[in-house]
Amino acid sequence: MAADCHIHMVLDGADYKAALARHRPAADEAWVRRTLAGYRDAGFTFLRDGGDAPGACRLAARLAPAYGIDYRSPAFPIHKAGHYGGFIGRGFSDFAGYRALVDEARALGADFIKVMVAGLMDFRRFGVVTDTPLPAGEMRDMVAYAHDCGLAVMAHVNGAQAVKDALAAGVDSVEHGAYQDDEGLHQLAESGAVWVPTAVTIANLRGRGRYPEDQVARILERQLRSVAAAARYGARIAAGSDAGAWQVFHGRGGLEEAALLGGVLGPDGPAILADGLAEIRRRFRRA
């Protein structure tokens, strides 16, 4: 049975603006049901959503049991006002605002909290992340409050120092995690957090003409090399595709991500990914 540890039900892999509009003023139940049916027919039994403000993930979580799917949702991603995440999440300006959003997500039935602590990879320029990360102390306070509420933390984060700061703050999973350095990969292994590398979001850019091919190739090679190193160091790794991201389609994206990771993890890949999935399932549930 298949699993995808990072999807976005609200998105469609083609046009994020049109996809978000589809779910306004309310989540499109027909879309959600078709997508869940597609996952079921492809053999998926576990999905973890990265969240969305319109509520598609919350609707999917309610409907998923009828499709034989264990579906985990954060209700919505939480981002700092003025930083990456405004197109899909809910923003806060101060810590009181953050606490209020965590409390709201919890009241809506969130299984965990999703925080946006850094920007995206700039696919035009190797090594560049599009936004400055949140300060390390702020990350610590955010994670501590979520943990005090009995909720694990899924962290969208890229950049070597930002990942190290997020791990030091105690996040339960690192999503994307581009450009990690060797020190950070050792820290990842020692932390017990799960890394969800979403390599297919890079791989599926190849040949599309949207970004320079040489930059995409360098970014992908770096990410896969880091995955291989993380596995050697004993880090937990799980397959999550970021399905709904551009050219990462629901169902197929999860299978493509598992194949990419399996290609660099080798014979031990199935056991490594099964362990990562088990840890995701253990941590990312309401206390």
Would you spell out the secondary-structure blueprint of this structure?
Elements: E1 2-7, H1 16-22, H2 29-41, E2 44-49, H3 56-63, E3 70-72, E4 77-80, E5 90-92, H4 95-107, E6 113-116, H5 136-148, E7 153-157, H6 160-169, E8 173-176, H7 182-191, E9 194-196, H8 200-203, H9 213-232, E10 236-237, H10 252-265, H11 269-283
Parallel strand pairs: 1-2, 2-3, 4-5, 4-6, 6-7, 7-8, 8-9, 9-10
Helix pairs in contact: 2-3, 4-5, 5-6, 6-7, 7-9, 9-10, 10-11
How would you summarize this macromolecular structure in one to three sentences?
The protein is an alpha/beta fold and 287 residues long.
Detailed description of the structure:
The protein is 44% helix and 14% strand. Strand 6, helix 5 (136-148) and strand 7 (153-157) form a beta-alpha-beta unit. The protein is built from eleven helices and ten strands. It is of the alpha/beta class and 287 residues long. It has helices at 16-22, 29-41, 56-63, 95-107, 136-148, 160-169, 182-191, 200-203, 213-232, 252-265, 269-283; strands spanning 2-7, 44-49, 70-72, 77-80, 90-92, 113-116, 153-157, 173-176, 194-196, 236-237.
The total count of strands amounts to 10
Spatial shape: globular
Strands ordered across the widest β-sheet = 5-4-6-7-8-9-10
Q: Outline the biggest β-sheet.
A: 7 strands, parallel
Given as residue ranges, the uncertain stretches (5+ residues, pLDDT < 50) are none
In what range is the share of β-strand residues? 5-15%
Helical amount: 40-55%
Distance between the termini: 26 Å
Annotation field: number of helices: 11
Q: How much is the average pLDDT?
A: 97
Decide which structural class fits the backbone: alpha/beta
Order of helices and strands: EHHEHEEEHEHEHEHEHHEHH
Radius of gyration: 17 Å
